[in-house]
Specification:
The structure holds 2 protein chains of 2 kinds. Chain A contains 24 helices and no strands. By secondary structure, chain A is mainly α. A 5-stranded parallel beta sheet of chain B has the order 6-7-8-3-9, sandwiched between helices. In chain B, strands 2-1-4-5 form a 4-stranded antiparallel beta sheet, covered by helices on one side. The longest helix of chain B is centred in the C-terminal third of the chain and has 18 residues. Classes of the chains: A mainly alpha, B alpha/beta. Chains A and B meet through helix 19 and helix 20 of A and strand 6 of B.
């Protein structure tokens, strides 16, 4: 067992750095012309010349750049103002309950929900038509897929707000909230100003890596781009995947060169963000120097709360309209409700959804199982050595979330082709594991540290060996935390689009990859049914994690939350 | 050194070059050695060293022997050091009887035999018939007694007490002290008690070592 725990961190490092390093190599080499499969052995910059002569390539790149920065800025601003206005009040708990289920929702499902809400024929238009608008037919407006990418940005923001909120709430206990609040109030500062000047810097330091992950994700996301993003031109990552899918294999070089451009765009976004951080810090210092009190902040506070609730409401309303579509019979514009309900869509999609469903469960459960085991081994090893991971180890853990997926999954795919493992279950599980692992570790870490080690010491004093102590004491006592970790991991796996598409190569499909593939067809009913599975599977995982421990330990009050 | 009881043979614990404890003593079976000191004096680190859980930030040297066996060379689970902390720390996912049965040595076979032993142990601390209870529903004093019964069932070679009475009410505290020291005496177990409460030391009756003053 001792050997095993030592193995934990080594395996995790191998698992994270291996695919990333090989993947990046497999992207860089073809970009410079080195692609032996196709007989490309010369080093050349030709593919970059080709890339830069693609039409509107810089528009695509700057779309991606803006998407990354604006999404992170608006989501963080909303969360920051909300927390500043309401930390320590009951509103936080209520909003947390409203928002946290959205975290487990795949990005694609949220994007579909938004699309069906705001589209010209969507729910909102139906609710106000024809009374307010006079529309008898869906207006010819480009709301979804708008050229500026506003719909896409909105789709990303409503998903990143829950993520950043939960990260911030996790960091909040480390800040001395009541003391600072009283001090700031006694100096005459408004509630929000006191929080922002006194506590936010401490909290922000804790959530920096998650914010970077948001920037990296939003600047390189593919599925949300396909569903909501502009099309002429599309954001960079979306175009890259189109080139990668091109039957003309020489397009791979172009796609690889593009992936390096994507790496640069995301890098630039992060660099610009570092600049923004400095600017923000300087601004705070300026305000503090001036001693501005900002006592009248009620309006901003209310606006922040409204923005939080709106973000959650948009997603929930979107999901409801998706679900409605999947049961809809005839549903003419501008009727707010279908004229009849039917199970026909469900019956019709059932045969074709069984295989993706099986693959979703298989890849999700296997990658979650492995990730949870590895996370436990790593944490056991920390107990053994009594050393907590440093900044370096945490950055390594965040690496798969900080590097644009296209930049290394392209290359990973190439290596899998060489190894003859493309579109096999082990390869798909491995690809999912790279993204599931960080979340599994991060979600188990705090409950693990919170476990009272004296239980373990008492059990050892009772003569119980290491394995017995783990299986009889630690695992059952921590069952809820372990299952929650598994539910988080499973939700991540269900939501993964790009790794599934590239490694599954169209032969292994999941509900998410299938749902996104339906986007262009625009069949609202079928999309609704697929999106249902996308939201149902993660939710079912969390339901198991919540109710199973309650049921197993129903006799024991000390085990209830 | 082959004698019965607990020997501390030149046990020395240091933290960053500062010596916290340096001690050689013999605690005979049924006897108590009390180590007193303010919090942060390192008295709990002595206990952790004997139990096998000393944090690596400390450096320890010297040996401890129980009944002639050098326990400081053994892994924690083979030391048979019965520990009582401030908190009773009953395993929250097991019934009272479950806690007790878990503590029984594996060499004792047979489901009904193990149950009977657990029930007898409960009687021994005046909690007859409480086996099926959820530990979370017990009072503070009852929990403390279950914790004592649990540690005694594991057939320890010694008792390590880390301020085990400090969270009990005044009258309960005196009762619990009597119970613990009587049981230890009855079984001939050497006891190491760390505390900052003078009354504990008095009740223990044995030698008192003061550190960190």
């Amino acid at each position: 067992m001792l050997m095993l725990t030592r193995l934990g961190p080594a395996l995790v490092i191998l698992l994270l750095t291996g695919p990333i390093a090989f993947g990046l190599a497999g992207t860089v080499l073809p970009a410079f012309g080195f692609l032996p499969v196709l007989g490309g052995m010369e080093l050349t910059l030709r593919h970059f010349r080709d890339l830069f002569s693609e039409p509107a390539i810089f528009t695509s790149a700057s779309l991606s750049l803006t998407m990354g920065l604006a999404t992170a800025f608006i989501s963080l601003l909303t969360v920051m103002l909300f927390i500043a206005g309401y930390a320590g009040t009951r509103a936080i708990g209520r909003v947390q309950h409203l928002v946290s289920p959205l975290l487990s929702l795949p990005h694609a499902a949220a994007a579909f929900g938004l699309a069906f809400l705001i589209a010209p024929s969507g729910m909102l238009a139906r609710l106000i038509s024809p009374e307010l608008t006079g529309w008898q037919r869906p207006p010819d407006l480009l709301i979804v897929n708008d050229p500026m990418g506003l719909a896409m940005m909105a789709g990303l923001i409503v998903k990143e707000i829950p993520f950043l909120l939960l990260m911030t709430l996790a960091a909040l206990p480390q800040a001395p909230l009541p003391q600072t609040r009283m001090l700031a109030a006694s100096l005459g500062y408004g509630r929000m100003a006191g929080f922002l000047l006194g506590l936010w810097p401490v909290i922000y330091r804790q959530i920096r890596l998650p914010v970077f992950a948001v920037i990296a994700f939003a600047s390189s996301v593919v599925d949300v781009g396909i569903i909501l993003g502009p099309t002429r031109p599309a954001p960079l990552a979306v175009r890259l995947v189109e080139w990668m899918d091109d039957p003309d294999l020489s397009m791979r070089n172009l796609a690889s060169a593009g992936a390096l451009l994507q790496l640069g765009v995301t890098g630039l976004a992060l660099a610009l963000w570092l600049g923004l951080e400095r600017l923000g810090a300087a601004l705070c210092t300026r305000m503090a120097m001036h001693g501005w009190r900002f006592r009248r902040d009620a309006l901003i506070r209310a606006a922040a709360l409204a923005a939080m609730v709106l973000a959650a409401a948009i997603v929930l309303a979107g999901l409801c309209s998706l679900l409605l579509w999947s049961f809809a019979g005839l549903w003419q514009f501008p009727d707010a409700l279908p004229s009849s309900f039917t199970l026909r869509t469900w019956m019709r999609t059932l045969p074709s959804i069984l295989e993706p469903l099986r693959m979703t469960l298989l890849a999700g459960l296997l990658s979650t199982l492995i990730a949870s085991l590895l996370a436990i081994l790593c944490l056991m090893n920390e107990d053994e050595t009594r050393r907590r991971p440093g900044r370096g180890a945490l950055t390594l853990l965040y690496l798969p979330l900080l590097i644009p997926q296209v930049a290394f999954v392209f290359g990973l795919q190439l290596f899998l082709v060489y190894a003859g493992m493309l579109a096999t279950l082990p390869a798909l599980v491995l690809a999912h594991l790279v993204f599931v692992m960080p979340y599994a570790y991060l979600s188990l870490k705090d409950p693990w540290y919170a476990f009272d080690r004296r239980y373990d010491q008492i059990a050892a004093g009772l003569g119980k060996g290491r394995a017995r102590r783990f299986f009889s004491i630690r695992l059952p006592v921590m069952l809820r935390a372990v299952l929650t970790t598994a539910a988080v991991g499973f939700a991540v796996s269900v939501g993964l689009y790009l790794p599934t598409v590239l490694v599954g190569a169209g032969r292994l499909t999941t509900v998410t990859s299938e749902a996104v593939a339906l986007a262009s067809g625009g069949n609202a009913r079928v999309i609704g049914a697929y999106a249902f599975w996308q939201m149902f599977l993660p939710a079912a995982g969390f339901a198991v994690a919540t109710f199973m421990p309650t049921l197993i330990f129903r006799r024991f009050r000390g085990m209830q939350v | 050194m082959k004698e019965k009881g607990l020997f501390l043979d030149g046990v020395k614990i240091t933290l960053g070059g500062r010596t916290l404890i340096e001690l050689s003593r013999h605690v005979r079976p049924g006897g108590v050695l009390t180590v007193m000191g303010p919090s942060g004096s390192g008295k709990s680190s002595l206990l952790a060293y004997l139990a096998g859980f000393l944090d690596p930030v400390f450096t320890a040297s010297g040996r401890a022997l129980v009944d002639g066996i050098e326990i400081t060379r053994l892994p924690p689970e083979e030391r048979h050091a019965g520990i009582l902390f401030q908190d009773p720390l009953l395993f929250p996912h097991m019934s009272v009887a479950g806690n007790l049965i878990f503590a029984l040595p594996e060499s004792l076979k047979g489901r009904s035999e193990r149950r009977a032993q657990a029930e007898a142990a409960l009687e021994g601390v005046g909690l007859d018939g409480m086996g099926t209870r959820d530990p979370a529903t017990l009072s503070g004093g009852q929990k403390a007694r279950v914790a004592l019964a649990r540690v005694l069932l594991s057939e320890p070679r010694m008792l390590l007490l880390d301020e085990p009475f400090s969270k009990l009410d005044m009258d309960l505290r005196q009762q619990m002290r009597m119970l613990v020291f009587d049981k230890a005496h009855e079984r001939g177990l050497p006891v190491l008690l760390v505390t900052h409460d003078e009354a504990d030391a008095e009740a223990a009756g044995g030698e008192t070592v003061r550190i960190g003053e």
